[in-house]
Design a protein that fits this description.
heterotrimer; A alpha/beta; B alpha/beta; C mainly alpha; A: alpha/beta; Rossmann fold; six-stranded mixed sheet; 34% helix; globular; disordered N terminus; B: 2 domains; binds adenosine-5'-triphosphate; binds magnesium ion
Amino acid sequence: MNARRQKSPSGSSRKKTSGATVPSSLPAGDILVDVRDVHMNFGGRDVLRGLSLQIPRGSVTAIMGGSGCGKTTLMNLIGGRLKPTAGQILVDGQSVPDLEKDELFELRKRMALLFQTGALFTDLSVFENVAFPIREHTKLPEPILRKVVLMKLETVGLRGARDLMPSELSGGMARRVALARAIVMEPMMIMYDEPFTGLDPISKGVIAKLIRELNQSLGITSIVVSHDVAETCLISDYAYLVGDGRIIGQGTPAEVQKSGSEHVRQFMDGLPEGPVPYQYPTKTGYIDDLVAGNT
Amino acid sequence: MNRKTLELWVGLFVAAGLLAIAMLAFKVGNLATADVLNAYVVKARFDNVGGLKAKSPVTMAGVRIGRVSGISFDNGKYQAVVTMAIDGRYQKIPADSSASILTSGLLGEQYVGFEPGGDERFLKDGDELMITQSALVLEKMIGQFLFGKASETPTNKK
Amino acid sequence: MNAIANLGRIFLSALERLGRAGLFLAETAAGTVTLVRRFPLVMQQVYAVGVLTLLIILVSGLFVGMVLGLQGYNTLVRFGAEDSLGLLVALSLVRELGPVVTALLFAGRAGSALTAEIGLMKATEQIAGMEMMAVDPVKRVIAPRLVAGIIAMPLLAALFSAIGVLGGHLVGVGLLGVDAGAFWSQMQSGVDFQEDIMSGVLKSLVFGVVCTWIAVFEGYDAVPTSEGVATATNHTVVYSSLAVLAIDFIMTSLLLTEV
Ligand SMILES: Nc1ncnc2c1ncn2[C@@H]1O[C@H](COP(=O)(O)OP(=O)(O)OP(=O)(O)O)[C@@H](O)[C@H]1O
Ligand SMILES: [Mg+2]
């Protein structure tokens, strides 16, 4: 099969990031993504306050945390769609916030972000959606392109749906098409933003299996952002827990699940009461706010 | 939509649009008639050109034979010099032909009309028409008419 | 005092937005060089903004021409100048109504659709997804639409004028008994190719740039929610119409004084 003709994405420079403080339990291997002391401020509100984490090359790393804690923001920072208020973000040795547009686009050709919504192009069929990055970035002849696209669709089990339009897909199918589109250029890294939300148990299992298989067969570094503790822990090598704008727990899934920290316990066990606030921060107290209406 | 049908539609649309521009240019506008071929230039002097403009038609027996290419003012003789481009097909215009500035309809645009003379020689490039008649200026005519009336009335009354 | 400060703030933010729109246009213009490779995309957009707008343009053009025929005849016949009806209809269409009414209809039909489409692409993260796939949405999405709008507008305006003249002929010659020969010959001698027809084409080219520019910018700059897209679509129609009328006045005065 000539699909392997595409250039291997990991063949590029493998600069080691120097001076990274690797936690004791972090699996050995070189660091692909290095986030150091990142602050992010949206209109006066600090979403991230000194978050640091490292993602080793070739691993599946989970990033878990409550809704609104800044996980999607973190993905956007790593992908260069946002610039941090302070701190450093290194991907494959390059400082993402300092890259020129061209350099950033070169880097993005080697990483994929699977959006929470899938973000399929609604005016293109499933086949054309998956073919899109190939058509844009290569001059692959049509017969080879067709083979590559069909192979990726087969991987996600949707070869038969190639002629459907995105509006004719279910949520889970759309996410699988988006996954096929993300892997079609064989990137060095994929970031999955909430790959499990809104899926039935079978689809969840299928996606989880896919993430694991892609990691093992193609060596793709994977970052899985999720608040689905069980599924995520099953497939990841290492897990970070985000809360209060920084990392509040890390380790192998087993370690995290056994952690004694109050923060971590609350999240892992799904307790309504605990140190993680359920309420969006406000300046006025609840009672004051209610009473304020009776002037 | 099928790629082929899309291309067909776009092709039809562009062709129709270009056709419309061509129709505007040739059928509605004067692109077809504005051009005079292998033109030669003749001149004529007028005391008053009225509303004549560059590109106004030059006709003979009601047929368009050329157009006005320029109008200038002769500082010495206080006359207007009108240069006209005459179509190369019309070579046999007598040299003593006369030129008058006429109006199409009561309020229409003005043009130059040639009346043929009896000369054996023909007009050629650079020639000047000697016999000319200026434009009729409506205000002047009305003025003369009223003036004539005014000078008549008192004598009648006496 | 507060009102003045507010006014100043609104003015400044409008100015800033205009600057952003200008930069966006420059970026898009620079992005059109890659369209040689993406010619099918332009074709697809010409279909969307041109072919799909054709019907409304043709129908409106026909009716406008017919009304001009009726109104013009009623006015001219008082001066015994009904032979000039062809000239009146053609000049009104070619110089003013063709480009202007086409641009207004274009803003309502094609411009609003462009804004809504791009705004929704933004709201559903398709634009962001494209960026993350290292594809510049300005080159892939915006540039083909801008070029298509600039191609389509003069063609649509010409079709509007052409069918309008035929509509005037239908009413004037067919219904009211104006002499067909006089209708066409007066028209031909009075309508100048350079001064009237080309200036009309020039106008519609400028309108094409402005209307499409406003439409794609409003879409690209829309707040990515359904409400934001609705507002942006609304803005497209309002701003395009105002811009077309204002530019028409400026261009007409420039073109007329030039003659
Ligand atoms: N563009 C923005 N402007 C202002 N605030 C923003 C913006 N994007 C995100 N935020 C804020 O940042 C916080 C984190 O948002 P983010 O989308 O990263 O959350 P998340 O962890 O992905 O949540 P979820 O699990 O619900 O997807 C939210 O409180 C949100 O209000
Ligand atoms: Mg999120």
